[in-house]
Amino acid sequence: MPANMKRSDDFTVLPGRKDDPLAREVSEYLRKELAPVDFIRFRGKGMLGGETLQLIRENLRGKFVYIVWSILNTNDELIQILQLISTVKRTGKAFHAVLVTPEYPYARQDKSHARRECISARLVGDLLEVAGLDHIITMTLHSEQIEGFFRSVDHLKDVPLMASYLSTRYNALCRKLGLKPGEDNLVVMSPDEGGVRHAEEFGRNCHPWTGQMAFAMQQRDRSAQHKKRIIGAVGDVQGKIVAIPDDILASGSTLFNAARAAKEAGALHVIGFCAHALGFGSPAGDGHVKSFGDSLSESQLDELVVTDSRPDFVEEALANPKMRQKVSVISVVPYLAEAIRRDMRGETIREMIRSSNIKDLYYEKHRAGA
């Protein structure tokens, strides 16, 4: 097959793990059945204990193969992904192997904070390419420098989708809060010092935004993971709607602190946006762990908008009455599927954003309070 040949009917979609709802939904959108894969785990202790094996029961020779993976257990599933890629390219004789994973594993370990500390995001990239990966399609990386860890990458950002969601709701939200939609009622707040650029990009994609920004000053507690101390808010948020965009939400402390700072400074309504929601519990101070649902319920956030890059979080949110009241979910399935379609046709991802109606690239799965 010529190196530049691309045929839109000659591709295969594989799940990155067993019973992956994101892979299933992407394949349904593309009207392409998932290729059958047997995920096998060996029992026992010692040498073979816990080892995995995958058997792909479809001919892959000469095809474009897209492995769609939403992470549930990073370390365990990463080995499976490496095995799948190796099988696709080396024994399956596929023409092109592409990993489609909205959440990149180890994305937060993108630089060294101290001596003798692994830059794990780079290590993962090396492992994937050594296994035979030709291209990766991922979404909202923790830092854009990760793009340099690959020979070929398409970096989809959640910002156009999240900003579109807010823009479509802005007028109705103003009326609900007693504000005039035509006035400058929207402030975009960076949750910490590392999110300023992301927040500014979010604002530029919001049609009602006129350039008003704020900044939440926080100090990281190096003695505890996922914990920061709020110092205060910089910027005028009095009587405003405040949007706080972030990339990854672990325990939520960064976002919750920023929301509290905004409310204490007079914000009328605070909406948090996050591409990848993990929803960890946090120490309660008495030896117990407070659930993410309780922390969210007690927080000053009026709404938390997330994508379905983590189907496990979405499932928990929709099953928990406290979380349903505050969590809105937008699906990135059309976004990922259209990226796959464009990759097959040799079309650019940038043109997808420029030429498409952004509303066609996502849909609402759930709105807070519904």
List keywords for this structure.
Rossmann fold, 2 domains, alpha/beta, 11 helices, 33% helix, five-stranded parallel beta sheet, 370 residues
Précis, in short:
By secondary structure, the protein is of the alpha/beta class.
Secondary structure layout:
Blueprint: E1 11-15, H1 21-30, E2 37-41, E3 52-56, E4 64-68, H2 74-91, E5 96-101, H3 120-131, E6 135-139, E7 153-156, H4 159-177, E8 186-190, H5 196-204, E9 213-220, E10 228-234, E11 241-249, H6 253-264, E12 269-277, E13 282-283, E14 289-290, H7 292-298, E15 303-307, H8 311-319, H9 321-326, E16 327-331, H10 333-345, H11 349-355, E17 363-366
Parallel strand pairs: 1-4, 4-5, 5-6, 6-7, 8-9, 8-11, 11-12, 12-15, 15-16
Antiparallel strand pairs: 2-3, 9-10, 13-14, 16-17
- Helix/strand order: EHEEEHEHEEHEHEEEHEEEHEHHEHHE
Overall number of strands = 17
Q: What is the CA-based Rg, rounded?
A: 21 Å
Alpha-beta classification: alpha/beta
Question: What distance lies between the first and last C-alpha atoms, to the nearest angstrom?
Answer: 51 Å
- Principal-axes geometry comes out as globular
CATH architecture of the largest domain: 3-Layer(aba) Sandwich
What's the number of helices?
A: 11
CATH class of the largest domain: Alpha Beta
The percent range for helix content is 25-40%
The total domain count is: 2
> CATH topology of the largest domain, which one?
Rossmann fold
Largest sheet: 8 strands, mixed
Percent of sequence in beta strands? 15-25%
Strand order of the largest sheet: 10-9-8-11-12-15-16-17
Mean pLDDT: 89
Q: Pick out the low-confidence regions.
A: 1-5
